[in-house]
What does this fold into?
Amino acid sequence: MTSGWAQKTRRTGTAAVASAVLCGLTLAPSLGTGAPVGTATPPPIGAVPAAKPLPRPADQRQKAVPIAQAMMMMAQVTPTDPAAAAATPPKPPPPPPPPFEVRARPTIDLSTLVLRPSDEALILKTLEDGPSHGFRRNEFGEVGLAEQLASADPDVHAAAVRALKVGLIRYARAQHGQRIAAESFKKNWGVHPDPYNPDKGFAAAVAEDRLAAWIDDLPPRYQGYVALRAALKTYRDIAARGGWETIPVGKTPLGLNSTGPRVLALRARLAAEDPTLPAAAAPEVFDADLVEVIKRYQLRSGLNPTGVVDSLTLTHLNQPVGQRILQIIANLERWRWIDRDMPPTRIEVNIAAAGMTVYNNNYPGLSMRAVAGRPADQSPMLQSRIDSIVVNPPWNVPYAIARKEYWPKEKKHPGYLEAHGFRAIPDGTNGGVRLQQMAGPSALGKLKFDFPNPYGVYLHDTPTHSTFATDSRAQSHGCIRLQNPSALAELLTANMPEWTPEALQAAIESGETKRIHLTTPIDVVILYWTAYVGKGQVSFRQDIYGWDRDLLQLLDPPPARLPDHLPESPAA
It folds into this structure.
């Protein structure tokens, strides 16, 4: 996955992290693994070179202007006429992507490729097996292609062979994420597949009689992809058996000692997805064993493990198997957008699961809950590298947030901004001033983890920790809030002599803004997994941004639709 800014910051190495910290603090289920198939045991983690603290950011030394004066400056440039506010016409929508057939047109003379009979059989099997990767049936070949290959008519056979060649080229492009045009990617889909043209590789594989190995290497080799592909088969098998019945809605939640037909329906629903579920002596009774089963289901669904089937848990249980299949298909497609050499030591954030995990040589270690952007302020998918940690960071409020939220609060309640630690700094743009919330009361808390990206987002602490206990944690302006940022900071500075945990804590308590510049940055990858496999189980998350639905529409118009977002508080 690349973009212009990411290519400029291409990794020259991975950050070293401390194994002692990696072993603990697992506060949330591990996210989907990016470990390639056959990954060896991780080696010891190396030392992190010492970093030097930098002086306070220049913004801290800028002279502020009184809030009242700033309000007057803003008023002078704020359009009052609705026509003036809309003077700049909106950008026209991007053109629709060209037809898939045009984008996948071969660039070589296919007539020069002479296929062996074994090659023909292998390609046919590969194309027929496309649905196992989440592709549409007959997406790369015509119906009846096998019969045409077996035809005694030389013209029919020749046309079928050419269709095989074209189909395999299209299949190879699809396995490298080339099914939709780059201009169709949403603004916040900052993870793009690398350009890929399989034509020469296909020709060489045929000429050198290694077509099977070439085809085998086309799909992503990550264990997360392999496991999710297996999950697709599992859930299609469930659908073939009839799926599962909806659990009736009741007047009260189901919990310990509940009885009746709804408990029987609950057991049948759980057994449809998990055939190893043990039988109960009294299946109509909600016993202690069933409490533990529900807790495990809630953890897999990103819900608080209460062991009670409340309205939200019931809503998740009653999602049809068809939706789960579509979620898996959408996430298989996203796997094909990712670099085939995703950094093995990295920080990975799952937006949909609102969680963060540090991977060391593709093995998960430190893990914690996070808060991601709300649907109106979506966190972007991206890849970058954390190059510094800011202790006691001020918050330079984005102009759009200031205009939408904070200046109206000041107008309604004069003195609000000053009471909450804000000051106005002269700025040649954005209405003449911008807001900065000083370290201490800053919404960024005590720590910020910086990395270059075109979205202006970062990982950071927060003074409000109650949000981490909620089921839905899509509540930020787009940045990623961390439940335990001190643990991450200690991890990244574990082998830096001047930054012991005690020194880090002392720096935080000083209240001064300091920047720890990492000479060996650590990669950070922010992704959107609504279906992934961890610890042998499939986890599903709500499509909070509607990105699954949007992606499926791009892949298969007219769209295979997902239902709208799950309600936060469905009727019990």
